[in-house]
Amino acid sequence: MRPPAWAQFVLWAVAGENQAEFVAGDLHEEFLLLCAAEGRPAGSRWYVRQVLRSATTLLGLRFRSGEAAHLVAAALVAVAMPLLLLDGLWSFVYSHIPLKDGLDRAPGFWAANVVCVCVCAAVCGSLAHSFARAAGVALAAAAGAACALWWSPAAVPWVYAGLVILAAPASSLAVFAWRRSR
Amino acid sequence: VEEIAMKWVKRIAIVIAVLLIVPAVTLLILGHRANAGLAQTTVEINASPDQVWTWLDDGDKLKQWVSWMVDVKYPDPQKTHGLGAKRVWTMKDENNGGALMRIAATFTEYAPPSLMTVQIGDTEGLFTGEASYHLVDLGSGRTRVEVRERAHYSEWFANLMEPLITPQAEKKMAMDAARLKQLVETKAEAR
Fold first, then answer.
1. At what angle do helices A67-75 and A40-65 cross, to 10 degrees?
2. What pLDDT is stored for residue A129 in this prediction?
3. pTM of this structure
């Protein structure tokens, strides 16, 4: 019996390499006991609650150990910065239209943003050497993308925002998994 | 381990270089095409050329269909129309934090109600260009408006980006022309 996959992923993403294995092991043991006593739904609910409650503490520990600093830097460099730079470039392009234009962007520009984010997040994912780090990089990439979208001066469509926030961690994890399989 | 890491660093460097170099070279090549900087559009309006002309010539009417134009000033009150007349269009640039940008316009061709050519250039010297409006009488109270705008950019980076700027300028121009058609036809019907 396994706990919810997304909760496990969040746990691996927020806990440092040193913590993730122990915490996940302890939670899994408790989860199995609860499942046996009260059923799987109750066990899953408890697992999710525990993960969410301990997320900030684990993240704090990770920051203190210096490990999270790499992740934040990776998110900024790999995802947020290219997105913000591209936004700046598109603003420059639109600003040079002789009779000016609004904040809407051509679909091609959004597509270029998505491709660039995927490539940069994939590069970041390829540098991760453990699942805990790869999960952290993926989470940080999603957070970086969300920050960049927040700061973007353009009129961001929801579809694009969702695509960027999902594509960044997905490509990062996909490259990590591919590298690992080789 | 170091060898593998170096191999990956090289691969990443190649990917980044390709991501930067390929678009830059493509833009450089596209920037040398014959119609670089030229944006044009055509719209057919159910109104006579005289009716359409006033919408091109009157500053207050111009503000209604040219998006992001917030003001039209006449530097020489004695000469507001005709060949050599000057105007200053103030545009709101939302992509530059909502800054107001002034564009000096001088009429170099003025033949109502068929041809108007305006020499334009922003007061900061970022671009110069020419916008011409050609009105063709199609008969039965219909007019074809042909708009052509050619821009030259003084900054090297803006020049490099020209293949991206011009299609967006053309799209904006087509949207403005569609608004002009709607406004002129609405007013013509009201009469």
1. 90
2. 78
3. 0.80
